[in-house]
Amino acid sequence: MLQQVKTLFIKEFTLEWRNRYALNGMLLYVVSTVFVCYLSFRNVVSVPVWNALFWIIMLFASINAVGRSFIQERKGRLLYYYSLASPQAFLLAKMAYNALLMLVITFLAYAIYAWWIGDLVQDHLMFAVALVLGSTGFALILTLMSAIASKTENNMSLMAILSFPVQLPFLITLIKLSKNAVDGLDPSVSYGLISVLALIIVIVLTLSYILFPYLWRD
Amino acid sequence: MHKIGETSAQILGLAWWKWVAIILVFFSLTAGMLLDVPKLPILHETIRNLYYHVTQWFGMMIILTASLVYSIIHLAKGDRRSDIIASEAINVALFMGTLGLLTGMLWAKNTWGTYWTGDAKLNGVAMGMLVYLAYTVLRGSMDEEQKRGRVSAVYNIFAYVMFMVFIMVLPRMTDSLHPGNGGNPGFGGYDLNNNMKLVFYPAIIGWTLLGVWLINIRVRMRSIEEKRKMNFKQ
User: Fold this and answer.
1) DSSP class of residue B167?
2) Do residues B171 and A168 lie in contact, with contact meaning Cβ atoms separated by under 8 Å?
3) Which residue out of A142, A146, A151, A204 would a mutagenesis test of the B interface target, given it has the greatest number of B Cβ atoms within 10 Å?
4) CA atoms within 13 A on the CB side of B100
5) Exposed/middle/buried for residue A77 (C-beta within 10 Å: 0-12, 13-18, 19+)
Protein backbone atom coordinates (compact mmCIF):
# COMPACT_ATOMS: atom_id res chain seq x y z
CA MET A 1 0.00 0.00 0.00
CA LEU A 2 2.67 2.46 1.07
CA GLN A 3 4.80 1.36 -1.86
CA GLN A 4 1.87 2.00 -4.23
CA VAL A 5 1.30 5.45 -2.79
CA LYS A 6 4.97 6.27 -3.18
CA THR A 7 5.16 5.09 -6.79
CA LEU A 8 1.97 6.93 -7.75
CA PHE A 9 3.21 10.07 -5.99
CA ILE A 10 6.46 9.99 -7.96
CA LYS A 11 4.47 9.35 -11.14
CA GLU A 12 2.32 12.46 -10.50
CA PHE A 13 5.44 14.49 -9.94
CA THR A 14 7.19 13.22 -13.06
CA LEU A 15 4.13 13.83 -15.24
CA GLU A 16 3.80 17.38 -13.94
CA TRP A 17 7.47 18.03 -14.50
CA ARG A 18 7.35 16.71 -18.06
CA ASN A 19 4.74 19.15 -19.27
CA ARG A 20 5.64 22.13 -17.23
CA TYR A 21 3.19 24.43 -18.96
CA ALA A 22 0.48 23.47 -16.46
CA LEU A 23 2.75 24.26 -13.53
CA ASN A 24 3.88 27.51 -15.11
CA GLY A 25 0.26 28.32 -15.86
CA MET A 26 -0.67 27.99 -12.20
CA LEU A 27 2.22 30.15 -11.05
CA LEU A 28 1.36 32.77 -13.64
CA TYR A 29 -2.26 32.65 -12.49
CA VAL A 30 -1.20 33.52 -8.95
CA VAL A 31 1.19 36.24 -10.10
CA SER A 32 -1.36 37.92 -12.34
CA THR A 33 -4.11 37.72 -9.71
CA VAL A 34 -1.87 39.38 -7.16
CA PHE A 35 -0.90 41.97 -9.74
CA VAL A 36 -4.54 42.73 -10.53
CA CYS A 37 -5.18 43.17 -6.80
CA TYR A 38 -2.11 45.36 -6.50
CA LEU A 39 -3.30 47.64 -9.29
CA SER A 40 -6.85 47.76 -7.94
CA PHE A 41 -6.00 48.26 -4.27
CA ARG A 42 -2.59 49.95 -4.54
CA ASN A 43 -1.58 49.37 -0.94
CA VAL A 44 -3.68 47.77 1.72
CA VAL A 45 -3.27 49.08 5.25
CA SER A 46 -6.22 47.46 6.95
CA VAL A 47 -5.35 44.06 8.43
CA PRO A 48 -8.74 42.36 7.89
CA VAL A 49 -8.78 43.41 4.23
CA TRP A 50 -5.15 42.35 3.67
CA ASN A 51 -5.84 39.00 5.30
CA ALA A 52 -9.14 38.27 3.57
CA LEU A 53 -7.80 39.32 0.17
CA PHE A 54 -4.85 36.96 0.49
CA TRP A 55 -7.00 33.95 1.36
CA ILE A 56 -9.54 34.70 -1.33
CA ILE A 57 -6.73 34.74 -3.88
CA MET A 58 -5.54 31.42 -2.44
CA LEU A 59 -9.07 30.00 -2.58
CA PHE A 60 -9.36 30.66 -6.31
CA ALA A 61 -5.80 29.60 -7.01
CA SER A 62 -6.35 26.31 -5.16
CA ILE A 63 -9.52 25.54 -7.12
CA ASN A 64 -7.58 26.12 -10.33
CA ALA A 65 -4.56 24.12 -9.26
CA VAL A 66 -6.16 21.15 -7.53
CA GLY A 67 -9.33 21.07 -9.61
CA ARG A 68 -7.39 19.71 -12.56
CA SER A 69 -6.08 16.69 -10.68
CA PHE A 70 -8.93 14.36 -11.58
CA ILE A 71 -10.58 16.37 -14.31
CA GLN A 72 -7.57 16.23 -16.61
CA GLU A 73 -7.23 12.44 -16.36
CA ARG A 74 -8.56 10.49 -19.30
CA LYS A 75 -11.05 7.70 -18.61
CA GLY A 76 -8.88 4.97 -20.10
CA ARG A 77 -5.86 6.00 -18.13
CA LEU A 78 -7.82 6.00 -14.86
CA LEU A 79 -8.99 2.48 -15.62
CA TYR A 80 -5.38 1.47 -16.11
CA TYR A 81 -4.33 2.95 -12.75
CA TYR A 82 -7.14 1.21 -10.93
CA SER A 83 -6.10 -2.12 -12.38
CA LEU A 84 -2.61 -1.56 -11.00
CA ALA A 85 -3.22 -0.03 -7.57
CA SER A 86 -5.93 0.17 -4.94
CA PRO A 87 -8.20 3.22 -5.23
CA GLN A 88 -7.19 4.38 -1.75
CA ALA A 89 -3.52 4.37 -2.70
CA PHE A 90 -4.38 6.37 -5.80
CA LEU A 91 -6.33 8.92 -3.75
CA LEU A 92 -3.63 9.25 -1.09
CA ALA A 93 -0.98 9.79 -3.75
CA LYS A 94 -3.11 12.48 -5.39
CA MET A 95 -3.71 14.14 -2.03
CA ALA A 96 -0.06 14.09 -1.08
CA TYR A 97 0.95 15.52 -4.42
CA ASN A 98 -1.72 18.23 -4.31
CA ALA A 99 -0.76 19.16 -0.76
CA LEU A 100 2.86 19.59 -1.81
CA LEU A 101 1.84 21.57 -4.88
CA MET A 102 -0.42 23.86 -2.84
CA LEU A 103 2.33 24.34 -0.25
CA VAL A 104 4.71 25.61 -2.92
CA ILE A 105 2.07 27.81 -4.56
CA THR A 106 0.93 29.24 -1.21
CA PHE A 107 4.40 30.23 -0.04
CA LEU A 108 5.19 31.67 -3.44
CA ALA A 109 1.93 33.60 -3.47
CA TYR A 110 2.71 34.99 -0.03
CA ALA A 111 6.14 36.13 -1.20
CA ILE A 112 4.71 37.96 -4.22
CA TYR A 113 1.80 39.32 -2.22
CA ALA A 114 4.10 40.65 0.50
CA TRP A 115 6.39 42.18 -2.08
CA TRP A 116 3.72 44.04 -4.05
CA ILE A 117 0.94 44.74 -1.61
CA GLY A 118 3.05 44.93 1.54
CA ASP A 119 3.81 42.60 4.41
CA LEU A 120 1.69 43.29 7.49
CA VAL A 121 2.50 40.03 9.26
CA GLN A 122 3.90 40.43 12.76
CA ASP A 123 4.14 36.83 13.89
CA HIS A 124 5.81 35.10 10.95
CA LEU A 125 6.06 31.69 12.59
CA MET A 126 2.33 31.51 13.30
CA PHE A 127 1.56 32.80 9.81
CA ALA A 128 3.75 30.02 8.37
CA VAL A 129 1.71 27.52 10.40
CA ALA A 130 -1.44 29.03 8.90
CA LEU A 131 0.02 28.77 5.40
CA VAL A 132 0.97 25.10 5.87
CA LEU A 133 -2.38 24.14 7.42
CA GLY A 134 -4.29 26.18 4.85
CA SER A 135 -2.56 24.72 1.80
CA THR A 136 -2.91 21.16 3.13
CA GLY A 137 -6.58 21.60 3.99
CA PHE A 138 -7.45 23.20 0.64
CA ALA A 139 -5.61 20.45 -1.20
CA LEU A 140 -7.32 17.62 0.68
CA ILE A 141 -10.85 19.02 0.44
CA LEU A 142 -10.47 19.88 -3.23
CA THR A 143 -9.00 16.50 -4.20
CA LEU A 144 -12.25 14.75 -3.27
CA MET A 145 -14.34 17.54 -4.83
CA SER A 146 -12.31 17.22 -8.02
CA ALA A 147 -12.98 13.47 -8.05
CA ILE A 148 -16.71 14.20 -7.71
CA ALA A 149 -16.73 16.97 -10.31
CA SER A 150 -14.82 14.84 -12.83
CA LYS A 151 -17.84 12.52 -12.96
CA THR A 152 -20.08 15.24 -14.38
CA GLU A 153 -20.29 16.90 -17.75
CA ASN A 154 -19.40 20.56 -17.14
CA ASN A 155 -16.90 19.87 -14.44
CA MET A 156 -14.90 23.08 -13.99
CA SER A 157 -17.86 25.31 -13.09
CA LEU A 158 -19.35 22.56 -10.95
CA MET A 159 -16.03 22.25 -9.17
CA ALA A 160 -16.41 25.79 -7.82
CA ILE A 161 -20.09 25.39 -6.90
CA LEU A 162 -19.42 22.17 -5.02
CA SER A 163 -16.29 23.22 -3.19
CA PHE A 164 -16.94 26.80 -2.06
CA PRO A 165 -19.62 26.01 0.54
CA VAL A 166 -17.85 22.85 1.69
CA GLN A 167 -14.60 24.79 2.16
CA LEU A 168 -16.28 27.51 4.21
CA PRO A 169 -15.84 26.11 7.74
CA PHE A 170 -12.17 25.54 7.04
CA LEU A 171 -11.67 28.89 5.34
CA ILE A 172 -13.29 30.91 8.11
CA THR A 173 -11.25 29.24 10.86
CA LEU A 174 -8.14 29.71 8.76
CA ILE A 175 -8.82 33.40 8.25
CA LYS A 176 -9.21 33.84 12.01
CA LEU A 177 -5.94 32.05 12.71
CA SER A 178 -4.10 34.00 10.06
CA LYS A 179 -5.52 37.27 11.36
CA ASN A 180 -4.23 36.45 14.84
CA ALA A 181 -0.81 35.84 13.29
CA VAL A 182 -0.90 39.08 11.30
CA ASP A 183 -1.88 41.02 14.41
CA GLY A 184 0.93 39.33 16.29
CA LEU A 185 -1.28 38.08 19.10
CA ASP A 186 0.10 35.71 21.70
CA PRO A 187 0.32 32.16 20.23
CA SER A 188 -1.77 30.75 23.09
CA VAL A 189 -4.83 32.53 21.63
CA SER A 190 -4.50 30.52 18.42
CA TYR A 191 -4.06 26.98 19.75
CA GLY A 192 -7.82 26.36 19.73
CA LEU A 193 -8.06 27.46 16.09
CA ILE A 194 -5.10 25.28 15.10
CA SER A 195 -6.73 22.25 16.70
CA VAL A 196 -10.00 22.93 14.87
CA LEU A 197 -8.13 23.15 11.55
CA ALA A 198 -6.25 19.92 12.32
CA LEU A 199 -9.54 18.28 13.27
CA ILE A 200 -11.16 19.29 9.97
CA ILE A 201 -8.14 17.96 8.05
CA VAL A 202 -8.39 14.63 9.87
CA ILE A 203 -12.15 14.44 9.20
CA VAL A 204 -11.66 15.20 5.50
CA LEU A 205 -8.89 12.62 5.23
CA THR A 206 -10.95 9.87 6.87
CA LEU A 207 -14.12 10.67 4.91
CA SER A 208 -12.26 10.74 1.61
CA TYR A 209 -10.53 7.48 2.42
CA ILE A 210 -13.86 5.80 3.18
CA LEU A 211 -15.88 7.37 0.37
CA PHE A 212 -13.47 7.32 -2.57
CA PRO A 213 -13.82 3.58 -3.33
CA TYR A 214 -17.48 4.28 -4.17
CA LEU A 215 -16.50 7.05 -6.52
CA TRP A 216 -13.88 5.65 -8.85
CA ARG A 217 -16.03 2.92 -10.44
CA ASP A 218 -17.77 4.08 -13.57
CA MET B 1 -41.44 0.46 -6.07
CA HIS B 2 -42.64 0.03 -2.53
CA LYS B 3 -44.62 2.95 -1.16
CA ILE B 4 -43.92 4.14 2.37
CA GLY B 5 -46.95 4.27 4.59
CA GLU B 6 -49.03 2.08 2.34
CA THR B 7 -49.14 -0.66 4.91
CA SER B 8 -49.79 1.45 8.02
CA ALA B 9 -53.26 1.56 9.59
CA GLN B 10 -55.62 4.09 8.03
CA ILE B 11 -58.21 6.43 9.53
CA LEU B 12 -60.70 8.04 7.10
CA GLY B 13 -58.50 7.13 4.16
CA LEU B 14 -55.31 8.63 5.56
CA ALA B 15 -52.48 6.79 7.30
CA TRP B 16 -52.56 7.38 11.06
CA TRP B 17 -49.24 9.23 11.18
CA LYS B 18 -50.52 11.76 8.64
CA TRP B 19 -53.35 12.56 11.04
CA VAL B 20 -50.77 12.94 13.79
CA ALA B 21 -48.87 15.38 11.57
CA ILE B 22 -51.99 17.44 10.81
CA ILE B 23 -53.12 17.53 14.43
CA LEU B 24 -49.72 18.40 15.85
CA VAL B 25 -49.02 21.20 13.35
CA PHE B 26 -52.46 22.74 13.90
CA PHE B 27 -52.09 22.31 17.64
CA SER B 28 -48.75 24.14 17.60
CA LEU B 29 -50.15 26.89 15.36
CA THR B 30 -53.13 27.59 17.63
CA ALA B 31 -51.72 26.76 21.07
CA GLY B 32 -48.56 28.66 20.17
CA MET B 33 -50.65 31.78 19.67
CA LEU B 34 -52.98 31.30 22.66
CA LEU B 35 -51.01 29.85 25.56
CA ASP B 36 -49.15 31.97 28.10
CA VAL B 37 -45.50 32.74 27.48
CA PRO B 38 -42.89 34.15 29.89
CA LYS B 39 -42.52 37.93 29.60
CA LEU B 40 -38.92 38.64 28.69
CA PRO B 41 -37.29 41.94 27.73
CA ILE B 42 -36.61 42.55 24.01
CA LEU B 43 -38.31 39.28 23.03
CA HIS B 44 -41.77 40.04 24.43
CA GLU B 45 -44.40 38.20 22.41
CA THR B 46 -41.99 37.31 19.60
CA ILE B 47 -40.84 34.42 21.76
CA ARG B 48 -43.79 32.58 20.23
CA ASN B 49 -41.72 32.32 17.08
CA LEU B 50 -39.74 29.67 18.95
CA TYR B 51 -42.65 27.33 18.18
CA TYR B 52 -42.32 27.87 14.44
CA HIS B 53 -38.82 28.97 13.54
CA VAL B 54 -36.87 26.67 15.83
CA THR B 55 -39.13 23.68 15.28
CA GLN B 56 -38.90 24.03 11.49
CA TRP B 57 -35.14 24.03 11.86
CA PHE B 58 -35.25 20.93 14.05
CA GLY B 59 -37.48 19.24 11.49
CA MET B 60 -35.07 20.19 8.73
CA MET B 61 -32.09 18.78 10.64
CA ILE B 62 -33.92 15.53 11.30
CA ILE B 63 -34.83 15.21 7.62
CA LEU B 64 -31.25 15.98 6.55
CA THR B 65 -30.04 13.29 8.92
CA ALA B 66 -32.54 10.86 7.41
CA SER B 67 -31.20 11.79 3.98
CA LEU B 68 -27.67 11.05 5.21
CA VAL B 69 -28.80 7.64 6.45
CA TYR B 70 -30.43 6.84 3.10
CA SER B 71 -27.29 7.94 1.26
CA ILE B 72 -25.23 5.55 3.37
CA ILE B 73 -27.75 2.78 2.70
CA HIS B 74 -27.54 3.58 -1.00
CA LEU B 75 -23.75 3.25 -0.99
CA ALA B 76 -24.00 -0.03 0.89
CA LYS B 77 -26.77 -1.64 -1.15
CA GLY B 78 -26.80 0.31 -4.41
CA ASP B 79 -30.60 0.27 -4.68
CA ARG B 80 -32.58 2.95 -6.49
CA ARG B 81 -35.19 3.52 -3.81
CA SER B 82 -32.82 4.81 -1.13
CA ASP B 83 -31.21 7.15 -3.67
CA ILE B 84 -34.57 8.67 -4.60
CA ILE B 85 -35.57 9.03 -0.94
CA ALA B 86 -32.25 10.68 -0.07
CA SER B 87 -32.58 13.22 -2.88
CA GLU B 88 -36.24 14.01 -2.23
CA ALA B 89 -35.50 14.39 1.48
CA ILE B 90 -33.01 17.08 0.57
CA ASN B 91 -35.57 18.88 -1.60
CA VAL B 92 -38.04 18.88 1.30
CA ALA B 93 -35.31 19.93 3.75
CA LEU B 94 -34.49 22.86 1.48
CA PHE B 95 -38.16 23.86 1.55
CA MET B 96 -38.32 23.65 5.34
CA GLY B 97 -35.01 25.47 5.59
CA THR B 98 -36.48 28.30 3.52
CA LEU B 99 -39.49 28.46 5.86
CA GLY B 100 -37.15 28.51 8.87
CA LEU B 101 -35.07 31.21 7.23
CA LEU B 102 -38.10 33.44 6.54
CA THR B 103 -39.55 33.07 10.05
CA GLY B 104 -36.08 33.61 11.48
CA MET B 105 -35.64 36.81 9.45
CA LEU B 106 -38.94 38.16 10.71
CA TRP B 107 -37.88 37.36 14.26
CA ALA B 108 -34.51 39.02 13.77
CA LYS B 109 -36.18 42.15 12.38
CA ASN B 110 -38.33 42.45 15.50
CA THR B 111 -35.68 41.71 18.12
CA TRP B 112 -32.31 42.61 16.65
CA GLY B 113 -33.67 45.34 14.39
CA THR B 114 -32.46 43.92 11.09
CA TYR B 115 -33.39 41.06 8.78
CA TRP B 116 -29.87 39.75 8.50
CA THR B 117 -26.85 39.91 10.80
CA GLY B 118 -23.40 38.39 10.62
CA ASP B 119 -24.32 35.97 13.35
CA ALA B 120 -22.59 32.57 13.26
CA LYS B 121 -25.86 30.61 13.11
CA LEU B 122 -27.18 32.71 10.23
CA ASN B 123 -24.03 32.12 8.25
CA GLY B 124 -24.48 28.43 9.04
CA VAL B 125 -27.92 28.45 7.39
CA ALA B 126 -26.59 30.28 4.35
CA MET B 127 -23.78 27.76 4.00
CA GLY B 128 -26.20 24.85 4.43
CA MET B 129 -28.50 26.22 1.73
CA LEU B 130 -25.55 26.68 -0.67
CA VAL B 131 -24.30 23.13 -0.03
CA TYR B 132 -27.65 21.52 -0.63
CA LEU B 133 -28.45 23.68 -3.65
CA ALA B 134 -25.07 22.56 -5.02
CA TYR B 135 -26.23 19.00 -4.36
CA THR B 136 -29.30 19.50 -6.54
CA VAL B 137 -27.15 21.04 -9.31
CA LEU B 138 -24.77 18.08 -9.04
CA ARG B 139 -27.64 15.65 -9.45
CA GLY B 140 -28.95 17.56 -12.41
CA SER B 141 -25.64 17.38 -14.20
CA MET B 142 -25.54 13.58 -14.47
CA ASP B 143 -27.81 11.41 -16.60
CA GLU B 144 -26.65 7.93 -15.82
CA GLU B 145 -28.68 6.65 -12.88
CA GLN B 146 -26.15 4.43 -11.13
CA LYS B 147 -23.40 7.02 -11.31
CA ARG B 148 -25.70 9.84 -10.21
CA GLY B 149 -26.79 7.86 -7.18
CA ARG B 150 -23.29 7.02 -6.03
CA VAL B 151 -21.65 10.39 -6.71
CA SER B 152 -24.42 12.42 -5.10
CA ALA B 153 -24.48 10.08 -2.08
CA VAL B 154 -20.76 10.67 -1.59
CA TYR B 155 -21.23 14.43 -1.81
CA ASN B 156 -24.22 14.29 0.53
CA ILE B 157 -22.22 12.51 3.24
CA PHE B 158 -19.26 14.84 2.87
CA ALA B 159 -21.45 17.95 2.85
CA TYR B 160 -23.41 16.83 5.91
CA VAL B 161 -20.26 16.43 7.96
CA MET B 162 -18.91 19.82 6.88
CA PHE B 163 -22.29 21.41 7.61
CA MET B 164 -22.21 19.91 11.12
CA VAL B 165 -18.70 21.25 11.66
CA PHE B 166 -19.89 24.67 10.56
CA ILE B 167 -22.94 24.92 12.80
CA MET B 168 -21.76 22.90 15.80
CA VAL B 169 -18.07 23.62 16.25
CA LEU B 170 -17.48 27.08 14.81
CA PRO B 171 -20.03 29.15 16.78
CA ARG B 172 -18.58 27.72 19.97
CA MET B 173 -15.09 28.71 18.87
CA THR B 174 -16.17 32.31 18.31
CA ASP B 175 -17.76 32.45 21.73
CA SER B 176 -14.77 31.01 23.51
CA LEU B 177 -12.43 33.43 21.77
CA HIS B 178 -14.47 36.62 21.97
CA PRO B 179 -16.67 36.43 25.05
CA GLY B 180 -19.83 38.47 24.65
CA ASN B 181 -19.36 38.76 20.89
CA GLY B 182 -21.24 35.60 20.01
CA GLY B 183 -24.58 37.34 19.60
CA ASN B 184 -26.64 34.17 19.39
CA PRO B 185 -28.73 33.58 22.49
CA GLY B 186 -29.02 29.96 23.64
CA PHE B 187 -32.20 28.27 24.74
CA GLY B 188 -31.06 28.15 28.33
CA GLY B 189 -31.48 31.91 28.47
CA TYR B 190 -35.10 31.72 27.50
CA ASP B 191 -36.09 29.79 30.57
CA LEU B 192 -38.40 27.49 28.68
CA ASN B 193 -41.26 26.85 31.07
CA ASN B 194 -43.39 23.71 30.95
CA ASN B 195 -46.11 25.53 29.08
CA MET B 196 -43.71 26.23 26.23
CA LYS B 197 -42.30 22.70 26.18
CA LEU B 198 -45.88 21.48 25.82
CA VAL B 199 -46.04 23.19 22.43
CA PHE B 200 -42.39 23.07 21.43
CA TYR B 201 -41.84 19.29 21.34
CA PRO B 202 -45.13 18.39 19.62
CA ALA B 203 -44.37 21.06 17.03
CA ILE B 204 -41.01 19.42 16.22
CA ILE B 205 -42.70 16.04 15.77
CA GLY B 206 -45.48 17.66 13.71
CA TRP B 207 -43.13 19.45 11.29
CA THR B 208 -40.95 16.35 10.91
CA LEU B 209 -43.96 14.16 10.11
CA LEU B 210 -45.20 16.78 7.65
CA GLY B 211 -41.76 16.61 6.01
CA VAL B 212 -41.97 12.83 5.84
CA TRP B 213 -45.38 13.16 4.22
CA LEU B 214 -44.00 15.55 1.61
CA ILE B 215 -41.10 13.16 0.91
CA ASN B 216 -43.59 10.31 0.61
CA ILE B 217 -45.62 12.21 -1.99
CA ARG B 218 -42.55 13.27 -3.97
CA VAL B 219 -41.08 9.76 -4.00
CA ARG B 220 -44.39 8.45 -5.33
CA MET B 221 -44.42 11.18 -7.97
CA ARG B 222 -40.96 10.14 -9.07
CA SER B 223 -41.90 6.48 -9.31
CA ILE B 224 -44.96 7.35 -11.44
CA GLU B 225 -42.79 9.53 -13.67
CA GLU B 226 -40.37 6.67 -14.14
CA LYS B 227 -43.16 4.24 -14.95
CA ARG B 228 -44.53 6.62 -17.58
CA LYS B 229 -41.07 6.96 -19.11
CA MET B 230 -40.78 3.17 -19.28
CA ASN B 231 -44.19 2.90 -20.98
CA PHE B 232 -43.25 5.63 -23.43
CA LYS B 233 -40.11 3.75 -24.43
CA GLN B 234 -42.09 0.61 -25.12
Assistant:
1) I
2) no
3) A151
4) 26
5) exposed
How far, in Å, CA of A122 to CA of A130, rounded? 13
Calculate the CA dihedral of residues B213, A166, A5, A214 and round it to 10 degrees. 20
The 3 state secondary structure assigned to B89-111 is HHHHHHHHHHHHHHHHHHHHHHH
How does pLDDT run across B111-168, given as a tens digit for each residue?
Answer: 777 788 777 777 788 888 899 999 999 998 888 888 899 999 999 999 999 988 887 7
Chain centroid offset of residue A58 CA: 8
- Residue closest to B210 by CA, chosen among B70, B35, B27: B27
CA nearest to B32, candidates B63, B59, B54: B54
Q: What is the pLDDT of residues A14-54, one digit of tens each?
A: 888 887 887 888 889 999 999 999 999 877 788 899 999 99
User: Scanning every residue of chain A, which has its alpha carbon at the shortest distance from the alpha carbon of B125?
Assistant: A165
Residue pairs spanning A and B at CB distance below 8 A: 79
DSSP run (H or E) holding A200? helix A187-216
Q: What is the pLDDT of residue B172?
A: 66
Please state the rounded mean pLDDT for residues B83-109. 90
- Rounded Cα distance between A129 and B81, Å, is 46
A156 in B contact zone (CB under 8 Å):
no
Q: What is the pLDDT of residue B198?
A: 78
Query: What is residue A45's three-state secondary structure?
Result: coil
**Distance of alpha carbon B47 from alpha carbon A215, whole angstroms:** 46
Whether the Cβ atoms of residue B158 and residue A196 lie closer than 8 Å to each other? no
pTM, 2 dp: 0.86
The partner residues of B11 in beta bridges, in order of sequence, read: B14
Looking at the DSSP bridge assignments, the partners of residue B15 are B10
Task: Collect all residues of chain B within an 8 Å Cβ-Cβ radius of residue A153.
Answer: 141-142
